[in-house]
Amino acid sequence: MNWITNSVLPKIKALVQPRDVPDNLWIKCGGCGEMIFHRNLEENQQVCPNCQHHMRIGAETRMEMLFDDDSYNRIELPKPVLDPLKFRDRKRYTDRLKEAQAKTGADDAIIVAHGKMGGAPVVLALFRFDFMGGSMGAAVGDALVRAAELAKAQKAPLVVFPASGGARMQEGILSLMQMPRTVIAREIVRESGLPFVVVLTDPTTGGVTASFAMLGDIHIAEPGAIIGFAGQRVIQETIREQLPDGFQRSEYLLEHGMVDMVVHRKDLRDTLIRVFSMVRDPLPKAVVVALPKTDKPKSEEDDSES
Amino acid sequence: MRVFLDFEKPIADLEGKIEELRHLSSEGDINIADEVGKLQAKVERQLKQSYQKLTPWQKVQVARHPDRPHFKQVLAHLVEDFTPLAGDRSFGEDKAIIGGIGRFRGFSAVVIGNEKGGTTEERIAHNFGMAKPEGYRKARRLMEMADRFKLPVLTFVDTAGAYPGVGAEERGQAEAIARSIDACLSLQVPIIASIVGEGGSGGAVALAAANRVLMLEHAVYSVISPEGCASILWRDGDHARDAAEALKLTSEDLLKLGVIDEIVREPLGAAHRNQETALDALGDAVEANLRTLVGTEGGKLKADRRRKFLDMGKKGLA
Question: Closest approach of chain A CAs to the CA of B138, in angstroms?
């Protein structure tokens, strides 16, 4: 090796070769099939400008969208027993975990952060669907309990954003036990008189839906998200009929009374701030009334008025 | 017609021989007592052998055995004056979950359980023990009533899981299960759950977020059926046997994990061979636990239950 191979050759190559075009500059919309330029998509909060299809977004992006001034603090989460069952299917669970950690740079499928929204404190817990399908094991359960305790300590509302296929099978029965555990987390918030809001994102299914996610004071769904208990394939195999149009989509759930509203991503932050402010300040704003004039000699401060 | 499981075949053969001998002796006057006695002893040895070391997959078969005591037998054997209470007060009556008030060993209690049904007709009527939202909403209604009247709640779990159907989804299966779990956790009276046969997923835990969770020796309790797990993780339902191993769904493993509190031993050859003995043992265990819980202050019962679930999973299988 010398300076030619290290420094000159690459420079020449860079001049001669056409630059590789990153293949993610144009993203195909899962809704209308249109190719969208990545910058347009970013500006539009990962919503297709053409058909308003809401794409899945990462937890970090979402936090930046929601907190005041993109500023928030992530909290340290408990580290539960690793692979409690010594589970192995075609792969070891520990290997699957490592792969997911390497891929995402995250410890597990959830992030908890606190910060301010509209100037008031709020705690957010966000699932990462890219981490083993956002599946709920002990780490997720512990995180939600921790998030609830944090909300209680800060007297802040808790907003959870599930994006999950359900329980994490590799933790067997202990993943099932996260259902009662997360229901307890929600009770901790409820008993503190604080709002517990669930923003159902695509997808929210299985044991996650059948526990804390359906126990919010307010349920907000992102447009077009799949939300349900049983998987569509399982249902189809059971009933052997075509599923209705839009089955298990946000709009379908709204129609059947399971969610309060379907909210476009661009309106989500304002909606949350509005709701929380109403819960926080239930009384009319104090009206400023001028003090009645008295005969007392005017003080110096009053002089400055005129 | 008696049903024999695959691994019970040697036992079936021996018992077939005994039957044959009895039939022969009723025709002629051969003395068969000795021979029958020997065969009977063999049957017992064989039963002991196979039931001592059942594999998880065999346990799944035992837990699903059609002659295993169902909730109706539990009620008939353990509950006096059972008065069923029907309906969720908003949509319908779900026969996959039976609930009501009755007297258990002298204590009046709210008793709730999954019923799979025995005959084909019954099984259809009870939807094979797979409840819809109405079932869980009825369970919740009855638990709330128990709380008002300060009656303990006894649940008996035996379900493959909640029903996966269009109507069930439309009417909020997930919400109904979540609220049923919430109802268990909110009670200020004792709640004791017994896993009698199959404890299938969310549909089971909906009735089992309890102060004490008991489990019959050969029952199974898991987050997903071995077949379902195999088809997702192995992409092949034929790996159900491997999935059953991996899921750790047996009473021994669940006790080690702290998910259940007590194993109720079954008679030789499991509960389907001797329902009465199995149900007596179950009744004794429920009674003993109930006696330790009655009289405890309601707030403490709730706090202890919550603590128990929050602490769950702190230890894995060594």
Answer: 16
Question: Which of B224, B257, B306 has the CB atom closest to A184's CB atom?
Answer: B306
Closest CA to A151 of A200, A110, A109, A113: A113
**B77 pLDDT higher than 70:** yes
Return the pLDDT at A285.
83
Q: Which of B165, B222, B190 is nearest to B300 (CA)?
A: B190
Measure B173 CA to nearest chain A CA, in Å: 7
A177–B313: do the CB atoms touch at under 8 Å?
A: yes
Q: What are phi and psi of A204, to 5 degrees?
A: -130, 105
Q: What is the pLDDT of residue A12?
A: 67
CB contact under 8 A, B201 and A209: no
Report the alpha-carbon distance of residue A216 to residue A222 in Å, rounded.
15
Q: Which long-range contacts (CB under 8 A, 24 or more apart) does A65-68 make?
A: A65/A265, A65/A268, A65/A269, A66/A117, A66/A124, A66/A268, A66/A269, A66/A272, A67/A113, A67/A115, A67/A116, A67/A117, A67/A122, A67/A124, A68/A115, A68/A116, A68/A117, A68/A118, A68/A119
pLDDT for A241 equals 78
Is the complex ipTM more than 0.90? yes
Q: Which residues of chain A have pLDDT under 50?
A: 304-306
Alpha carbon distances (Å) from A212 to A144, A165, A208, B17: 9, 14, 7, 57
Task: Note whether A173 contacts B181, CB cutoff 8 Å.
Answer: no
A-B CB pairs within 8 A amount to 172
Name the pTM for this structure: 0.91
Chain A residues with CB under 8 Å of B232 CB are 169
A83 interaction partners in chain B (CB closer than 8 Å)? 316
Answer yes or no: do B259 and A173 touch at CB < 8 A: yes
